[in-house]
Amino acid sequence: MKCKLFAAVLSCSLALCLFVGCAAPSEENNTGDNGGSIGNIAAPTDEITPGTEMYRGFTLDNVYHSDEGEIHYNVYFPQSYDGTAAYALFMTLPGYEGLYRFGAGANLRSEEFAFEAQNYIQDVIVLAPQLNDWGMTSARQTVALLNYFISHYNIDPSRIYANGFSGGGETLSLVMQLAPELFAAVLHVNSVWDGDLAPLVAARAPVYLVIGESDEYYGSARISATYREIVSLYRAEGLSDERIAEFVVLDIKDAAYFEAAGAPNQHGGGAYYAFDEEIMGWLFSHSKGYTRNTAIADVAGDPVFGDYGRLLFPVDDWYYSGDTLGTLSMTWYSHIDPDKTVEICNYLRSRAAAGDRVFYDIYTDEEKAADPSLNDTGLFFFKGDEGAPFAVTCAGGGWAYVAAMHDSFPHALELSKRGYNAFAIIYRPGCADGI
């Protein structure tokens, strides 16, 4: 395909999109929905059977009919939630006594994490699944339920938290093997770690490990060994101990801690951590999203993007300067909005973390192997309404590089907000025989 031919096709495509776009997409809120709600609670759908019993603000025994099986859960929505603003999400996984076999709401009646979380974040949806065990099936169901909420409600992807107590901690460790990139931070309470640690470390997911030194059920030796292994993995990646301390904390509580709390024993005393401001404050002090201070290299190399994260920025790095998103500067452009840069990167990251496709290759692996320069091409996708018209945005850059962060990503994001599907093309500038 010749460059001129491509330009002509692109112009025709844009014109067609604008023509088709005369039938505007839905005006409904496009940032999240209540799933057809009555108040804040989802009405019956093919996927959800809502509960009817209430307990301390929670709707009990909702059922998500997922591909992983039926998932029973309790949920709290603040009265202020209407889907227009993104809310934090906190998920609490109970110990043995909170499994579904002991009745709907048993987890809420035996632990206070779900209620105390509301004292730290007012704009928070609290999700309290009741699973059947603490193995991989329950972990997959937990991830499925979490992804359902992310895709059907307006959830702030930078503020997703979880705790797991006892058996729930084992489940949480497996969840962090399957989807660690979803969480801003997690609290692992009086338990052991069954999951693979490599995904946790690769995602840089912060975890707080807390247990009694003489926990009657697990002891503290195994989780201490897990902590040492996590530290070792981070050191192998070249992180300093100071930096590692941002990602993992080991807190071994002595007998005096539980005696002061009035706990009957150390293992059951884990329930008292819900009232510990230092522990709970650590959990909710984290946020997952990028900021102005996030290093450009960390965004380009974020595992959630696979090998295409580098294409977010000019391939030839001499066309841009700055080390962070807030200091990004590109040749010939003097009005780069750092807040828009952060918003774009967080949008793409949150969608990718939720399992949505945000990048499409233009060429096959065989074509790229034959011509390595084709690796520097692709289409970033900004999703709109299903079935809505689409547009393709093409950044400039003086025929020298692709200034997508200024010239096409902001436009594609705005189109998606209005319900249109938008693609931002990454091409080879100055090409003579193709994109």
What quaternary form is this? Answer: single chain
- Count of distinct strands: 18
What is the name of the CATH topology of the largest domain?
A: Rossmann fold
Give the terminus-to-terminus CA distance: 7 Å
β content, as a range? 15-25%
Radius of gyration: 24 Å
Q: How many domains?
A: 2
Number of helices: 15
Short précis:
By secondary structure, the protein is an alpha/beta fold. The protein folds into two domains: 3-29 and 293-426, no CATH class; 37-284, Alpha/Beta hydrolase fold, catalytic domain (Rossmann fold), CATH 3.40.50.1820.
Model description:
Helix content is about 30%, strand content about 20%. It is α/β, with parallel strands linked by helices. The chain folds into 2 domains: about 160 residues, no CATH class; about 250 residues, 3-Layer(aba) Sandwich (Rossmann fold), CATH 3.40.50. The strands form 4 sheets. Strands 3, 4, 5, 6, 7, 8, 9, 10, 11 and 12 form a 10-stranded mixed β-sheet that branches. The longest helix is centred in the N-terminal third of the chain and has 18 residues. The protein starts with a helix and ends in a 9-residue tail after the last strand. The N terminus is likely disordered.
Main traits of this protein?
18 strands, Rossmann fold, 20% strand, 2 domains, four-stranded mixed sheet, 31% helix, 15 helices, 435 residues, alpha/beta, ten-stranded mixed sheet
List strands and helices in order, with pairings.
Elements: H1 3-20, E1 37-38, E2 41-42, E3 48-49, E4 54-55, E5 58-66, E6 69-76, E7 87-93, H2 106-110, H3 113-116, E8 124-130, H4 136-152, E9 155-165, H5 167-178, E10 185-189, H6 197-202, E11 207-212, H7 221-236, H8 241-244, E12 248-253, H9 255-261, H10 277-284, H11 296-300, E13 320-321, E14 329-330, H12 338-353, E15 359-360, H13 365-370, E16 378-382, E17 390-394, H14 404-407, H15 409-417, E18 421-426
Parallel strand pairs: 7-8, 7-9, 9-10, 10-11, 11-12, 17-18
Antiparallel strand pairs: 1-2, 3-5, 4-5, 5-6, 6-8, 13-14, 15-16, 16-18
Helix pairs in contact: 4-5
